[in-house]
Amino acid sequence: MKETDIIIVGAGPTGLFAVFEAGLLKLKCHLIDTLPQPGGQLAELYPKKPIFDIPGYPSVGAGELIDNLMEQIKQFQPEFTLSETAETIDKNEDGTFVVTTNKGTKIKGKAVAIAGGLGTFEPRKPELNNLAEYEEKGLEYFVRNPEQYAGKRVVIAGGGDSALDWSIYLANIAKSVTLVHRRNEFRGALDSVEKVKVLKDAGKINLMTPCEVVEIKGNGKVESLVLEKEGIQQEIETDYFIPLFGLTPKLGPIANWGLEIEKNAIKVNNALDYQTNIEGIYAIGDINTYPGKLKLILCGFHEATLMCQSIYNRLNPGKKYVLKYTTVAGVDGFDGSRKEAEKAVVKSIE
């Protein structure tokens, strides 16, 4: 059985950053993820999608962000169990935990951090006939590789951020982009809505509202779509149809771990350390919920930081901890010692 300090369930951006914060405190981590590679949704669903709300990066690709996080934590040598799902959790009498995966792998840890993002998820699909017939044959639910749409005709359906963002992005590389939404109003960021309108006026996006896709046609692959607007139907040719209606999240086996659940998310104590109703088990990132919760990557980073401080104090009762800044102590200077912190400050002054 493998042993570590913190078992992290989920290797998305929040889970990866938790490794860094734990490493500063000399705590070792072992990450478990159902996906075959670290990165969570960013790596699996939209690695080329630009992200605009990471501090210090006006724009950073989702895949690039994961690469940077992996480089940042490499020094702390985390262990990974990938392509396996955390199935069960058992708490021992000494307060440690054993997490067992669906393939029988057992990892023992002193604390558990659940950073599973949306949990397991599947795309919300349009209610159209013969969807399965066209899936991965021109019908795509995610944009994994934008370059495959270069010079192609693309129809995107949806009214949220993903539909808006990908319409904007693909307008620069696709032969044509048509954005279809059943309402005139969009749910996405106002800035994105304005960009779509500008691209529409420039003739780079064909905006169809209020409008819906009512039929897919093609011989073995998507060749055309039937659109309906205000009771009038028209058929347009296309190479790809990408309905982006969001994801249906499911907690999966985590729902059976005895945790307090609210609206498919894990309730935590945000006033202190993002601990769940079970002492020693924490939840950070999109998978948790509390009053005022925002599902943003940068919020997950904040939660991971406070969680690691709590775990350190829990595992080292009575040991005085002094917060030190990496600009003063560097990465190797974090051990929770007041004496070492004072030395680092004196050295920096000298």
From TrEMBL:
SUPFAM superfamilies: FAD/NAD(P)-binding domain. It is an enzyme of class 1 (oxidoreductase). Transmembrane segments: none annotated. The keyword Metal-binding does not apply. InterPro entries: FAD/NAD-bd_sf, FAD/NAD-binding_dom, Fd--NADP_Rdtase_type_2, Ferredoxin-NADP_redctase_2. Signal peptide: none annotated. Its EC number is 1.18.1.2. It comes from the Bacteria. GO terms for molecular function: ferredoxin-NADP+ reductase activity; flavin adenine dinucleotide binding; NADP binding. Binds 1 FAD per subunit. Residues 5-291 form the FAD/NAD(P)-binding domain. FAD binds at residues 14, 33, 41, 46, 86, 121, 286, 327. Keywords: FAD, Flavoprotein, NADP, Oxidoreductase. The keyword Oxidoreductase applies. It catalyses: 2 reduced [2Fe-2S]-[ferredoxin] + NADP(+) + H(+) = 2 oxidized [2Fe-2S]-[ferredoxin] + NADPH. Its cofactor is FAD. Homodimer. Belongs to the ferredoxin--NADP reductase type 2 family. This is Ferredoxin--NADP reductase.
